[in-house]
Structure formats: structure tokens, C-alpha cells
Amino acid sequence: MIATEVGENIENRLQKYFQERAYEISSIDEAQNQITFSGLVRPSWFLAVFLSFLAACGLLCFGLVLSLLYPSLGNLFLFLTLFAPTAGVFYWRGAKRMEQVLLQIKPFEEENKALITLTAHRDEIIQFKQEFSFEECNE
Predict the structure, then answer these.
(1) What is the pLDDT of residues 68-99, one digit of tens each?
(2) Rg (CA), the chain
(3) Under a CB-based contact definition with an 8 Å cutoff, are residues 50 and 60 in contact?
(4) Which domains does the chain carry?
């Protein structure tokens, strides 16, 4: 929960922030003054390549062990390394997901203040705190 000055129209500012981060309004509950944003979390190219690299290292080591155990087959097991990109493909298919952010704004006891309650993924909350410098209230 965050307390903030209401001087400028904070709802419009927060709505613009989330829309710039590729979120769209999916529902508005005027009774609780709550807005629900939905957005698609995209997979990371870096992470896909990194996972493929790690899989290649693991398969190479496994192939070396198998080639030592079965020397009559030679280095045939080293071709297992060719399956490493499948790790990146599995990550890429599974990492794309829909995420929701719940934003609730209530008038605060003090004059010209509002209480903002943000319910979201941990990374989104961290990014939100970096973007805005609000006074934080933990309840």
C-alpha cells in the first residue's frame, strides 16, 4: 500500500504507466474503486539462449561419460549436444503467459492523499516502486 498526494490526477498517471508497460484495462469495479489490468508477459531471448547453452554443456558432459563407458561406439554420443536447442524451445513455449495487476485507489484519512493498493507479480511491484516515489505504508 502506498500513500500519495492527489494533487495531479493520479488515476490517469497510473493508467498511462501501465498502458506503456503493455497492460490493458480488463475490468473496472467502481464500487471498490479498483482497476484490473491484463497483459502478456513475453519470454526473454537471453534466457532462451542461456538455457540452450546450459543444456548443451550438460549434454556434452553426458555424451563424454557415455563415450567413456562404451568406447566401442566412439564419439557417437557427442551428437546428443544437437538436442540442446530444445531447452530454449520448451522455455519459449511455456514462458508466455497472461498476467493481471489489480490497482485500488482509496481516499486517505489525511487531506489531499490517497491510498494505493497494488496487487501484482513481485517483479512488477519492484518496477513500480522504481518508477514512482511514493510514501510506502505496510499494513
Answers:
(1) 999 998 889 989 999 999 999 999 998 888 88
(2) 24
(3) no
(4) 2-42+98-136 (3.30.310), 45-94 (no CATH)
